[in-house]
Amino acid sequence: MKALMRRRIQVLCGAVLLGVASAAWGFLPEEPKPIPKAAPKPMPKAAPKAQEASPVASPKAAGGRRSGEVFRDCADCPEMVVIPAGSFDMGGSAGDESPVHRVSVRGFAMGRTEVTQGQWRAVMGNNPSYFSNCGADCPVEQVSWNDAQDYVRKLSANTGKTYRLPSEAEWEYACRAGGRHEYCGGDSIESVA
Question: Pfam families of this UniProt entry (predicted)?
Answer without folding.
Answer: FGE-sulfatase (PF03781)
